[in-house]
Amino acid sequence: MPAQNSAEKYKKVRSILISQPKPARSPYYDLEEKWGLQIDFRQFIQVEAVTVKEFRKNRIRPDEFTAIIFTSKNSIDHFFRVCEEMRIKMSGETRYFCMTEAVANYLQKFIVYRKRKVSVGKRTIMDLKPALTKHKKEKFLLPCSNLGAKEVSNFLTENEFDWTEAMMYRTVASDLSDLADVFYDILVFFSPLGIESLYENFPDFKQNETRLAIWGNTTKKAVEEKGLTANIFAPSPEFKSMTMAIEAYLEKSNKE
Is the pLDDT of residue 121 over 80? Predict the structure, then answer.
């Protein structure tokens, strides 16, 4: 791919595509109004349920486990969906380990929340290590997608926990074929899965003058592995949010 010169790098931006579902409220709407942009939202990845018929083939019964580790809201949704469809009621003594406070708060939709039975981390599995170690004799179930939860799996294996992985949903690429002839000045990605979806839908994608706004180092790595350029990056010491990073770019690209 040809290198961009400085003039091309800051070519005026008129349209942005955010690879996420459209929210009810968002700071992107403020950017759209302030800079006179067209900002669209489109989910590049979607979650599909694993059917109970398929799940039963694993010979796993959730109620045979005394502790459940939840890494996301999706894992909670599909765990309790499977339980309902299998007509399983989890014991009130079951322990739950939630990766973040947001995940733990979401769990309250499904259980009678008792702090002594719910342990909460801040961001990674290491935040939960003290609580997990304290209850190491429990039998753990890890609900996950087809992508697994590598960091958590590695931790549980290395520390010799009694645990089982249970795939209850799949993360797959959305159908973006209707965007084949649509051009955006900036594409915004928040995970490597978004990049994978882009190439699954458009195998011959060329960046050309399209600028890429990238969230996080793992997404940036996925971009670079495809030979693409990350023109806008967050988070950083300077830009705590993606909208801050994009606005800083717009101040250069769209200046009069």
Answer: yes
